[in-house]
């Protein structure tokens, strides 16, 4: 068939979308299937694949709207075939984004069953993977034409759909830096913040107010009707909460006040990379800075026979937070020159291997920070193991990667909790598994713990010894920051899981339990070496 006929097919695709936008879904579906059938008229494999690629978005979007899972899966397959065989590099970001949307839409057909029957979340994992692949291939034109903003917004929506709200907020923030008037990113960020506000001990009102502001701003933008209805409903709910709690009025944003040059550097670094244990660091139209780590379990319920429960798990969570904060300090200190740090390795003899590798206490601090971030994840795994009263694996075999029963499918005893927050932690474990997109953070920890990892500022062509693991300094720094963002998210989901589980247990045993409230950490004495 001639090119003009391919152009005609493209026009029919546009007509199918016009019908879709007018809510004439049966007509849109019929036209889509008619266009799809035209592929059989092509003998040339490229033209056939191009016809399928033109039809694929309709199959995915209209198939999802009419609840036809087979249409969605065929559209996803067509995108996958096009990418594997024909997609030009300068359009790869767009095609990968469409492929991710296809997997995300396919996942939605089974999402209601994912927790209750421990179903495999492979389609959601693939959606996350291809959104990330799309991000890595974005070019300047994709920012100008709006694709980059869409990729980050839909990636955030995907994360939020499985309870990974803290990561979703980070994704919405990237989208809003690209386009501050992206209505879906504004509204969904507001919804996600409102969900996390209750665990911001002593500061919940600041985040509720921020959620209200974002929802109001979202409703000023162009939005799909379904989203507009949902955001309006959520805004009314939060305004009702505001009315019921009259003390929740706008006020000065209060957090940490830096007291030294290093403290100021630490706060600014953590704000820039999203490393504080709170949903968002910049509040209000003025982007006022909030520094602090208030995230904590608000309430636990204990039977009269188990009043030590609170002390046990609050102590455990304190340890996890302190490990995170110490590791974060090492990361920040690795980027801040000081005379004290300069003296640490004076007099230490090191052999220069003539390979441009870097040797300094600052690099060792960065490496130690990476190990500490993974240690936080493994300690979270043991908290879950203990709190859920598990017996497998053996206690000395518990790690964040392994506790789930393997990274292909969540274990049945976890599924029995029916907790979206455990599912969020499972998703994180998938992403850091040996087959996951973020597997290198564990690979680095293992290399640093048992062997070594060479950090360099540039690598010579003759450095080809596969037995010597190497990484560029900037890349290693970015990977370490990623490890801390993962640990931060995991701490959030752990707290949400405990909050949710405590509420369920209290409802089951209301007459046998009593609430035990957490004491703010700032109200107790702190140890300081003399």
How would you describe this structure in keywords?
mainly alpha, 20 helices, Serine Threonine Protein Phosphatase 5, Tetratricopeptide repeat, two-stranded antiparallel sheet
What does this structure look like?
The chain is mainly alpha-helical and 530 residues long. The protein folds into 3 domains: 1-137, Serine Threonine Protein Phosphatase 5, Tetratricopeptide repeat (Alpha Horseshoe), CATH 1.25.40; 146-295, Tetratricopeptide repeat domain (Serine Threonine Protein Phosphatase 5, Tetratricopeptide repeat, Alpha Horseshoe); 301-517. 60% of the residues lie in helices and 4% in strands. The protein has 20 helices and 6 strands. It has helices at residues 3-21, 25-37, 45-65, 69-85, 92-108, 122-136, 140-144, 147-161, 165-178, 183-196, 204-218, 225-244, 261-273, 309-333, 339-342, 361-387, 412-415, 420-432, 440-450, 473-508, and strands spanning 282-283, 288-289, 299-303, 454-456, 470-472, 513-517. The strands form 3 sheets. Strands 1-2 form a two-stranded antiparallel ribbon. A two-stranded antiparallel ribbon has the order 3-6. The longest helix is centred in the C-terminal third of the chain and has 36 residues, at 473-508.
């Amino acid at each position: 068939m001639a090119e003009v006929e391919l152009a005609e097919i493209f026009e029919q695709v546009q007509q199918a979308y016009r019908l879709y936008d007018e809510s004439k879904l049966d007509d849109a579906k019929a036209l889509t299937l008619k266009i799809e059938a035209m592929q059989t008229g092509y003998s040339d494999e490229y033209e056939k694949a191009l016809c399928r690629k033109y039809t694929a978005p309709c199959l995915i979007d209209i198939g999802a709207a009419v609840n036809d899972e087979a249409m969605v899966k065929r559209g996803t397959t067509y995108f996958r075939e096009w990418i594997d065989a024909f997609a030009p590099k300068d359009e790869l970001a767009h095609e990968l984004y469409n492929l991710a949307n296809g997997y995300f839409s396919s996942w939605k057909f089974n999402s209601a069953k994912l927790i209750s029957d421990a179903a495999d979340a492979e389609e959601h994992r693939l959606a996350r993977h291809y959104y990330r692949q799309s991000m890595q291939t974005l070019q300047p034109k994709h920012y100008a034409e709006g694709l980059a903003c869409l990729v980050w917004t839909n990636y955030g929506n995907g994360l939020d759909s499985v309870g990974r709200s803290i990561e979703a907020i980070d994704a919405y923030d990237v989208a809003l830096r690209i386009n501050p008037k992206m209505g879906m990113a504004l509204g969904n960020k507001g919804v996600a913040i409102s969900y996390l506000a209750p665990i911001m001990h002593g500061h919940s009102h600041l985040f509720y107010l921020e959620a209200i502001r974002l929802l109001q701003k979202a409703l000023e933008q162009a939005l799909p009707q379904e989203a507009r209805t949902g955001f309006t409903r959520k805004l009314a709910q939060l305004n009702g909460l505001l009315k019921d709690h009259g003390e929740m009025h706008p006020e000065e944003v209060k957090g940490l006040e830096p007291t030294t040059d290093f403290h100021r550097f630490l706060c600014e670094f953590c704000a820039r990379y999203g490393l504080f244990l709170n949903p968002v660091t910049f509040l209000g139209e003025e982007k006022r800075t909030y520094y602090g780590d208030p995230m904590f379990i608000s309430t636990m319920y204990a039977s009269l026979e188990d009043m030590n429960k609170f002390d046990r798990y609050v102590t455990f969570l304190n340890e996890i937070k302190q490990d995170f904060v110490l590791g974060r300090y090492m990361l920040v200190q690795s980027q801040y020159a000081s005379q004290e740090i300069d003296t640490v390795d004076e007099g230490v003899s090191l052999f220069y291997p003539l390979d441009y590798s870097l040797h300094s206490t600052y690099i060792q601090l960065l490496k130690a920070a990476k190990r500490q971030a993974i240690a936080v994840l493994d300690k979270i795994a043991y908290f879950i193991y203990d709190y859920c009263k598990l017996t497998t694996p053996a206690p000395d075999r518990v790690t964040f990667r392994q506790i789930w029963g393997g990274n292909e499918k969540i274990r049945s005893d976890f599924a029995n909790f029916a907790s979206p927050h455990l599912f969020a932690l499972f998703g994180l474990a998938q992403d850091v598994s040996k087959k996951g997109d973020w597997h290198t953070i564990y690979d680095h920890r293992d290399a640093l713990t048992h062997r070594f990892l060479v950090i360099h500022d540039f690598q010579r062509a003759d450095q080809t010894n596969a037995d010597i693991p190497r990484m560029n300094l900037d890349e290693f720094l970015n990977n370490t920051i990623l490890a801390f963002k993962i640990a931060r998210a995991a701490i959030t989901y752990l707290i949400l899981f405990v909050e949710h589980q405590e509420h369920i247990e209290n409802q089951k045993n209301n007459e046998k339990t009593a609430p035990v409230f957490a004491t703010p950490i700032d109200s107790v004495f702190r140890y300081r070496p003399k």
